[in-house]
UniProtKB/TrEMBL annotation, chain A:
The keyword RNA-binding is assigned to this record: no
Keywords associated with the record: Oxidoreductase, Thiamine pyrophosphate
EC number: 1.2.4.4
Gene3D superfamilies per record: 3.40.50.920, 3.40.50.970
Provenance organism: Marinobacter vulgaris
Chain coiled-coil ranges: none
Keyword Acetylation included in the entry's annotation: no
GO molecular function per UniProt: branched-chain 2-oxo acid dehydrogenase activity
InterPro entries: THDP-binding, Transketo_C/PFOR_II, Transketolase-like_Pyr-bd, Transketolase_C
Any one GO BP annotation for this protein: branched-chain amino acid catabolic process
Transketolase-like pyrimidine-binding domain sequence ranges: 4-180
Protein name, as recorded: 2-oxoisovalerate dehydrogenase subunit beta
Obligatory cofactor(s): thiamine diphosphate
Matching Pfam families: Transket_pyr (PF02779), Transketolase_C (PF02780)
UniProtKB/TrEMBL annotation, chain B:
Function: The branched-chain alpha-keto dehydrogenase complex catalyzes the overall conversion of alpha-keto acids to acyl-CoA and CO(2). It contains multiple copies of three enzymatic components: branched-chain alpha-keto acid decarboxylase (E1), lipoamide acyltransferase (E2) and lipoamide dehydrogenase (E3).
InterPro entries: Alpha-ketoacid_DH_E1_comp, DH_E1, THDP-binding
Official protein name in the record: 2-oxoisovalerate dehydrogenase subunit alpha
SUPFAM superfamilies named among the record's database cross-references: Thiamin diphosphate-binding fold (THDP-binding)
UniProt record, GO biological process: branched-chain amino acid catabolic process
A Pfam family matched in the record: E1_dh
Length: 325, 394
């Protein structure tokens, strides 16, 4: 075990994967000798050479198209998109190509080795284009896996799982926590399961669900609610697609109430999918409407970021109104 | 910082690159004889006949399957007519283990590699033997054993993928390269730019082969780009480039052979622009009479690449009237018989609806499938094909 922040844990996961398999490659804008604008790929080029860790020209659709080809060839590419806000030029390569490669070829070809890493989320004064949470766009795409870690231990275990998973996987890293989140991380190779939510705290009155940096927000909101005697069950979804319906439904069977929170805008956000599914599964058990605490239906603002974000107070209020319904 | 030492001038000097005129490489005249001074490439009889048979197979398959589409037996079809030399001639200059990443008008390359008429038909009819399990529209072929990447509809997406695939081949050091085919319309997509730039920067063994056939559906090349075709763009990437008469099988073969040497032995990506003409409609859903003249088509019909090669073969005494008659008859019969067989085969099993989305079927998708099966069980007459073929899956 070593004390690491989230960036060190990600760097350590990449190092672990590259050491174990020479077909693992890391590339993207500025990931080479510079080690990435956030330093997630520090020292990898020095250690594994320019052929396995390199800068690409500044072209997101090219990075992912190139990565798709490499993965189809049998390599294990870990492509970096500098900010999740800039993944959209590659949307076609991800949605029409990566996600459909295996299906359309009848499994003659696949890009299962592909992992796409991208820093995501707000809270760093990033304005419109350094703050976005695009997971819901990809959640509508069969064939992809979408994963979000909440701390350094998760980051390494889930990233190694994503790299070894036989499906193209998007790995969104909460950049607000890159240096803020610090914890013990095992030195060896370990993998946390994809497609499984984690119950962080058991409770009986209400289920509070989120992912990534929002788990920290939930933690504060739940502390406030528990002081007032509300017993909260807290779940980290971890994998957005395919998501763990079972764990969430079982929790709601028990608590009868659900709050879902994410930074992305409300309309078309992934909380809508969760709410609809849980309403179908748990209709007779629900004691209050499922609440969604999310970013507003606006582009991500700069100066009024604090007002825009679904902070712990907003989550706390949603918990209160749910239990008082 | 610039990568080259620029000459300095002290008044504004603009240049539009007009001084770079790329010549067209030709070897074979339409009458089957070589141009003066042209040297025939190193093609033995067996290989020449393998190429010719693939071209004729492609032509006959295309004619017959377009007719089948017109009769309503097939939902969709796309012909390669007029472009057989560009496609087959280039594929034949590669090693059969090199990867081919095509657009959708390159069935000739598959025919050359040995894809059987049965295999073509199974895909066209999406029956239970189709490798793609009936999921894609007709002509979206793929074959892992023939190193032919499965086709997808979105244009140009395969071009940066080819760069990535070839980068993997370079690291593997297996002495192979990738060729990627695309039309001059697809070359306007951003993925074209991404692919060529990345290939040049990383010195990737990939051959970019543009079929410049004059039209992207109804859009003539003059509305596609203002420059002298696609070839001059290679200068901007510092990439080797050659323009070839795409109806000249010998020139296409020779250019691709030389390009492969540059790619595999020197890690130099190459752009080949083959100048040809899309003699047929864009697809079975298109009628070219709305946007181009019969006169223009007639000019190109006289440049038929298959006839040109046949005359060359005959001049070398490698082919005769009888050989031609026999090949045509056999091929037409085989296409017809195979089509009937493929059409009668059942569709893919019902569970292929949900397999291969992921390596394993996720629980939520398995539930959707169970619900579909119950539904079909209640309404078997509404879903006769899948109900009959569920093979106990229901």
């Amino acid at each position: 075990m070593t004390q690491m922040n989230m960036l060190q844990a990600i760097n350590n996961a990449l190092d672990t994967a590259m050491a174990a398999n020479e077909r693992v490659l890391c590339f993207g804008e500025d990931v080479g000798v510079f080690g990435g604008v956030f330093r997630a790929t520090s020292n990898l080029q020095q250690k594994y050479g320019k052929a396995r860790c390199f800068n690409t020209p500044l072209v997101e659709q090219g990075i992912i198209g190139f990565a798709n080809g490499l993965a189809a060839q049998g390599s294990v590419p870990v492509a970096e998109i500098q900010f999740a806000d800039y993944i959209f030029p590659a949307f076609d390569q991800i949605v029409n190509e990566s996600a459909k490669f295996r299906y359309r070829s009848g499994n003659l070809f696949n890009v299962g080795g592909l992992t796409i890493r991208a820093p995501y989320g707000g809270g760093i004064a990033g304005g419109l284009y350094h703050s976005q949470s695009p997971e819901a766009y990809f959640a509508h795409t069969p064939g992809l896996k979408v994963v979000v870690p909440r701390n350094p231990h998760q980051a390494k275990g889930l990233l190694l799982a994503a790299i070894h998973d036989q499906n193209p996987t998007l790995f969104f890293e909460p950049k607000r926590l890159y240096r803020a989140s610090v914890g013990e991380v095992p030195d060896e190779d370990y993998r946390l399961p994809l497609g499984e939510a984690e119950v962080l705290k058991e409770g009986t009155d209400i289920t509070v669900l989120g992912w990534g940096a929002q788990m920290e927000v939930i933690e504060h909101a739940v502390e406030m609610a528990e002081k007032e005697g509300v017993s909260c069950e807290v779940i980290d979804l971890r994998t957005i697609l395919p998501w763990d319906v079972e764990t969430v439904a079982n929790s709601v069977f028990k608590t009868g109430r659900l709050v879902v929170t994410h930074e992305a805008p409300l309309t078309g956000g992934f909380a809508g999918e969760i709410a609809a599914t849980i309403q179908e599964r748990c209709f007779l058990y629900l004691e209050s409407p499922i609440a969604r605490v999310t970013g507003m239906d606006t582009p991500f603002p700069l100066v009024l970021e604090k007002e825009h974000l679904p902070n712990h107070l907003k989550v706390y209020e949603a918990i209160r109104s749910s239990v008082e319904f | 910082m610039t990568t080259t030492k620029a000459r300095v001038v002290y008044s504004p000097v603009f240049t539009d690159g007009a001084e770079f005129r790329i010549p067209t490489f030709k070897l074979l005249k339409q009458d089957g004889s070589l141009y003066k001074g042209a040297k025939a490439p190193d093609l033995d009889k067996d290989k020449a006949l393998r190429i010719y048979r693939a071209m004729v197979t492609t032509r006959i398959l295309d004619e017959r399957m377009l007719a089948a589409q017109r009769q309503g037996r097939l939902s969709f079809y796309m012909q390669c007519t007029g472009e057989e030399a560009a496609v087959v001639g280039s594929a034949a200059a590669l090693d059969d283990a090199d990867m081919i990443m095509a657009q959708y008008r390159e069935q000739g390359a598959l025919a050359y590699r040995g894809f059987t008429i049965d295999e073509f038909m199974n895909q066209l009819f999406g029956n239970e033997l189709d490798y793609g399990k009936g999921r894609q529209m007709p002509v979206h072929y793929g074959s892992s054993k023939l190193n032919y990447m499965t086709i997808s509809s979105p244009l140009a997406t395969q071009i940066p993928q080819a760069t990535g695939y070839a980068y993997g081949q370079k690291l593997a050091g297996d002495g192979h390269c990738t060729i990627t085919y695309f039309g001059e319309g697809a070359a306007s997509e951003g993925d074209f730019h991404a692919a060529l730039n990345m290939a040049a920067v990383h010195r990737v063994p990939v051959i970019f082969l543009c079929r410049n056939n004059g039209y992207a559906i109804s859009t003539p090349a003059a509305e596609q780009f203002a420059a002298d075709g696609v070839a001059p763009r290679a200068y901007g990437y510092k990439m080797d480039v050659i323009r070839v008469d795409g109806n000249d099988i010998l020139a296409v073969h020779e250019a691709t052979r030389a390009a492969r040497t540059l790619a595999v032995e020197h890690n130099r990506p190459v752009l080949i622009e083959t100048m040809t003409y899309r003699l047929a409609a864009h697809s079975s859903s298109d009628d070219p009479s709305g946007y181009r003249s019969k006169d223009e088509e007639a000019v190109w019909r006289e440049k038929d690449p298959i006839l040109r090669m046949r005359l060359w073969l005959e001049s070398k005494k490698w082919w005769s009237e009888d050989d031609e008659k026999q090949l045509q008859e056999n091929m037409r019969r085989e296409v017809l018989e195979t089509m009937k067989r493929a059409q009668k085969r059942p569709p893919p099993a019902l569970d292929t609806l949900v397999s291969d989305v992921y390596d394993e079927v996720p629980p939520a998708l398995a539930e959707q499938f169970d619900s579909l099966k119950s539904h079909i069980r209640r309404h078997p007459d509404a879903y006769p094909k899948s109900a009959e073929h569920a093979k106990g899956g229901l």
